[in-house]
Design brief:
137 residues, alpha/beta, two-stranded parallel sheet, two-stranded parallel ribbon, 6 helices, 43% helix, globular
Length: 137
């Protein structure tokens, strides 16, 4: 999470968070975000690792620069060394557009790290084949 990044590295990094929703200002959005995070873990891991307290703290304060735009259209103020996208691409109607948009905003030696969840079965296999072709070409 961007807040943890800023806690660890402070002013050494410039962190932007791109989303259509402000998860921090509205308490009901914070509850939704916490519930979505909870579903990402087994109940044992959630309890044993004290993740609820950690995520509540991280959701309590926005330490990054928010940009409330579509990931496929967002424009950063300058080229970036590193761009990441975790647990987000599968919610966009065209992840390939997002990849292209983010890639084109990197410095020539910049790095794009993404995470994409796909469903099991034929639909997921087709999506993976499409994304693999895109990455190779």
């Amino acid at each position: 999470m961007l807040n943890q990044l800023k806690i660890n590295f402070g002013d050494y990094v410039e962190a932007y968070g791109v989303d259509l929703i402000d998860w921090y200002s509205d308490p009901s959005n914070k509850r939704i975000a916490l519930e979505q995070l909870r579903r990402s873990y087994s109940e044992d891991d959630w309890q044993r690792q004290g993740l609820e307290m950690l995520y509540r703290e991280l959701l309590s304060e926005k330490r990054f620069i928010p940009i409330y735009k579509d990931m496929g259209r967002v424009q950063f103020p300058h080229k970036m060394d590193l761009l990441t996208s975790f647990f987000a691409l599968q919610y966009h109607n065209n992840p390939l557009i997002v990849w292209c948009n983010l890639f084109n905003q990197l410095y020539p030696s910049g790095v794009l790290i993404t995470h994409l969840l796909v469903p099991d079965g034929k639909e997921g296999d087709e999506a993976l084949a499409l994304y693999n072709d895109f990455v190779r070409n």
